[in-house]
Known about the structure:
Blueprint: E1 9-12, H1 18-29, E2 33-37, H2 51-62, E3 67-70, H3 77-91, E4 96-98, H4 114-146, E5 152-157, H5 160-165, H6 170-190, E6 195-202, H7 217-222, H8 229-236, E7 247-251, E8 254-257, H9 273-286
Parallel strand pairs: 1-2, 1-4, 2-3, 4-5, 5-6, 6-7
Antiparallel strand pairs: 7-8
Helix pairs in contact: 1-2, 1-8, 3-4, 4-6
The protein binds nicotinamide-adenine-dinucleotide.
Amino acid sequence: xxxxxxxxxxxxxxxxxxxxxxxxxxxxxxxxxxxxxxxxxxxxxxxxxxxxxxxxxxxxxxxxxxxxxxxxxxxxxxxxxxxxxxxxxxxxxxxxxxxxxxxxxxxxxxxxxxxxxxxxxxxxxxxxxxxxxxxxxxxxxxxxxxxxxxxxxxxxxxxxxxxxxxxxxxxxxxxxxxxxxxxxxxxxxxxxxxxxxxxxxxxxxxxxxxxxxxxxxxxxxxxxxxxxxxxxxxxxxxxxxxxxxxxxxxxxxxxxxxxxxxxxxxxxxxxxxxxxxxxxxxxxxxxxxxxxxxxxxxx
Length: 299
Ligand SMILES: NC(=O)c1ccc[n+]([C@@H]2O[C@H](COP(=O)([O-])OP(=O)(O)OC[C@H]3O[C@@H](n4cnc5c(N)ncnc54)[C@H](O)[C@@H]3O)[C@@H](O)[C@H]2O)c1
C-alpha cells in the first residue's frame, strides 16, 4: 500500500469517536503523525473526558504510528490556539487540520431555544473558524519566512443537512452551510500561500445518527465511518495540492463532488413590484428546483 501522508503532521478534531476516529487512524496508517483532539463530549456537547481520545492514540501506537492527545474545546479561541501550538511543539510543524468535531441539538424552529441555537453554531462554525484561523496565521508566517508556499490543508466537515436542507436542524444546517461557504472563501484567501481548503459531507453510522431510523446490517456496513476517511487521506496528501474549494460527499456507497449555488434565470432590474412578480414566477418555473435531501433533482 502506498503511504500517501508519510511524515505529514495532522490535527483531527473530534477524533475520539465516529468519523473523526477513522480519519485519525486512516491518516496514521498512511504515515501521518496525528494529534487526536477531542473534548470527550456527549452528542449534545455536554461533559468532557479525554479517555476515548487516549484510546485512539493507543490504537495508533499499537499500529506503529505516532499520536498524542489534545483535550481542548474547538470552539474556544484559546483552546484552538493551544491545539495548534501543541501540534507544532510535539511534531515540529503542522500540515493538515481536519475540522470534524460536532454536536447536535435538533429541534423544530418554533421550539428551538437560544442555547440550542448558540451551542450548535458555536461548536461547528466557531469550532471550524478558530483552529483554521490559528493554523492559517502559522502557515502565512512560515511562507513569509521561507519565501515559499507551504503545502498545507484545511479539511472541514459539512453535511447534507446544510447543503440540501434537513427539517428539524435550522441550527445545525445553518452551521454546516456556513462551513461550506467558509471553505470556499478560505480556499480563495489561502491559495497564494499554498493552503488548500476543502470540505467533506460524510454519511456514516455513528452515535450521532444511530437513532435516526432502523438500520439493517447492510445499511450499517455501507455507513461504516471507514468509507469516509479515504477521501480525507487523499485530500491531506502532499499530492492533492491542486484540489481546493470543493465540497465532497463520502459514505453510504458513494463519493460525490457537490456543485454550489449559481445564477439561474435572470431579467433586467425593475422598479415596479407588481410587474416583477410574474417575472419572478416565470423565472422560477424555468430553473431547477432546490435538490432533495439526496442532492438530486426533485421529480
Ligand atoms: N455521522 C454522519 O452521518 C454525519 C453526517 C453529516 C455530518 N457529520 C459530521 O461529522 C462530524 C463527526 O460526526 P460523528 O457522526 O462522528 O459524531 P460523534 O458524536 O461520533 O463524534 C463527534 C466527536 O466530536 C467531539 N466533540 C464535540 N464537541 C467538541 C468540542 N467542542 N471540542 C472538541 N471535540 C468535540 C465529541 O466528543 C465526539 O467524539 C460532525 O461534524 C458531524 O456533524 C456526520
